[in-house]
Amino acid sequence: MTDDAAIGHILVVDDEKYISDLLKYNLEAERYGVTVVTRAADVPSIDLAPFHLIIADAMGQSFSGMDMLRAIKDNPATSYIPVVILSHSDSQDDIIDALDNGADDYILKPFSLRELMARIRSVLRRRQAMTAPRAATRLQFRGLSVDLVRRQAFSSDGSPLNLTKTEFAILSFLLKNRNTFFNRAQVYDQVWRDQERPANDRIVDTNISRLRKKLGDVAEGLVNRTGQGYALID
Question: Would you say 120 and 84 are in contact if contact means Cβ atoms under 8 Å apart?
Fold first, then answer.
């Protein structure tokens, strides 16, 4: 996967090749860029700025995954990077030690792959929410008003639009990124991101068609261009 295609970059630190290969394959299938390192001792000398998450085995090396965790969290330049610890140990002391030293999650081996992927997404969402700047809670577009807190859209005369949860999510996403085109896969990733199923062009087109019918005169600003995708254009 190229850097341009990746939605984020993850560093996997594990000397069990089966585990690192499994994680790399499945994370790349989720469109993450993945770098694998087998020695925890090598991590503090790596430029970690490009990484959005580190997944590390606690490992029994002389410089262990736990030593690596402490080094990352003790360094102000890298302490913001979330770290998920994998371990064969279910000792309460080990779990508490990892969490007290800054681990964002602790996952036992062997693990359920579906659960692991869900917990990785959860860690990334939490960290994104913590670091994201405070955004506007009410957006305007050609007389349309969208209240992001109440999750309600209003026409120019103040009447509420009867939008489904999915239609509102599509409208909010395009409105926050107005004048930018997104293809079906990108819209799907944003609106259906937590659903364990492949992207579906038909469901995107169907929901946008329904949304357009409910927008009235504002619908002319919801543009679909061949080869570019959908956008709300001022």
Answer: yes
